[in-house]
Amino acid sequence: MGSLSTTAANKTALTEAQIALQLYTDYFGPLAYKRVHMTQQTACNYGQAWPGVIYIPTCYYWGPTVRHQLGMQQTRGAYWDTVAPHEVAHLWWGHSVGWNSYRDQWMSEGFSNLSASLFLQVVYPKEPQRFRNFWRDMLFLITERNSQGFRPIEVGPVTQGYRLSSGRTGSIASDVLYPKGAYILHMLRMMMWSPKEGDTKFKGMLRDFISTYKNQPVTTEDFKAMVEKHMLPEVKITQSGVSDGFVMRPIYIELQDGRVMRLGSATLRGNTSVAQKVNLGQASKTSRCFFFRRKEPRRPTAGCSRPVSASVRTRPPAVRAARSGRTSCATGWSPPTPRA
Ligand SMILES: [Zn+2]
136 C-alpha vs ligand 1 centroid, how far in Å? Predict the structure, then answer.
């Protein structure tokens, strides 16, 4: 491996941080700290952000050649190229605004991942494949089955946080929170982008979000309200404006053996949710489910608060059953677990 001077190697981390700080200041608003320190920690592949201090994993300093020799270089999401900008982004997402509960942590990780994609796009304009490959990898992470047979995109909503991981589903939560959280914000970026103004609307929304909730924990509902405030008028994503006379259409459940049975129906008023018990028949035990209204009366979504052995869907769109697990929290980032 030769000699290793982390002091000299830290110049790369410092340079990446300086670029990221300028970029994120443009997108998210002024940094809350006067100084930012970049330093290493002994963990090989785990970075972490603190207020004004960024821990970079020590294997980052080995450089791509040594990591390649050790078989570590190929990671999903260009981990080694994005760990520094991802952690720097936590100075906004996680520290300038926090998260109210485990249900809102997806914003901290997802938004930091989106920030890392901005870094790739801006720093490597002549290598657009870096940006494309990053999102290709995010898509892979949320759609491929893990060793327990679960696809992250189906296991439950981002708002279920680390409860998505369990003895049954494995350590699947991070493959939901990081990539799907990033895709949610990327989707909004694309919806707000225009040839004339570029990311101006998107930046305005995120700057407003940071300044409005500075030094406060935020909820997913806070962010939804901010999106509704800034979304282009021609894009209708809000749930507001739905008639109180809304009647939920029948909801069907698709069992693992392919059978489809009627799950029930629900009547919702206003922007609310409702909980009720449904019998899943021979396929599973009774589970307590809750239903959300959406803009289109024919497209209700549903989630179950306890594990079920079937996916829930309406006709025609598919919706998924959620599963519970345990809670945990962190702002650090490790590379995705390699898959068989
Ligand atoms: Zn993170």
Answer: 19
* Ligand 1 centroid from CA 210, angstroms: 17
The amino acid present at 60, given as its one-letter code, is Y
Q: Would you give per-residue pLDDT tens digits along the chain (340 residues)? A: 557 777 888 999 999 999 999 999 999 999 999 999 999 998 988 999 999 999 999 989 888 888 888 888 777 778 888 999 999 999 999 999 999 999 999 999 999 999 999 999 999 999 999 999 999 999 999 999 999 999 999 999 999 999 999 999 999 999 999 999 999 999 999 999 999 999 999 999 999 999 999 999 999 999 999 998 998 887 765 555 566 665 555 667 767 677 777 777 766 665 556 666 666 654 444 444 444 443 333 333 333 333 333 333 333 322 223 322 222 223 455 555 433 3
Distance in Å, CA 119 to ligand 1 centroid: 15
Q: Calculate how far, in angstroms, residue 244's C-alpha sits from the geometric centre of ligand 1.
A: 40
pTM: 0.71
Q: Go through the domains of the chain in sequence order and give each one's CATH number.
A: 1-238 (1.10.390.10), 239-271+294-320 (no CATH)
Q: Rounded to whole angstroms, how far apart are CA atoms 295 and 225?
A: 15
The closest of 120, 76, 104 to 213, measured between CA atoms, is 104
The Å distance, Cα 88 to ligand 1 centre, comes to 9
What is the 255 CA–ligand 1 centroid distance (Å)? 36
Question: What are the tokens at 331?
Answer: 């702002």
Distance 264 CA to ligand 1 centre (A): 40
* CB neighbour burial string for 88-120, b if at least 16 within 10 angstroms, e if fewer: bbbbbbbbbbbbbebbbbbbbbbbbbbbbbbbb
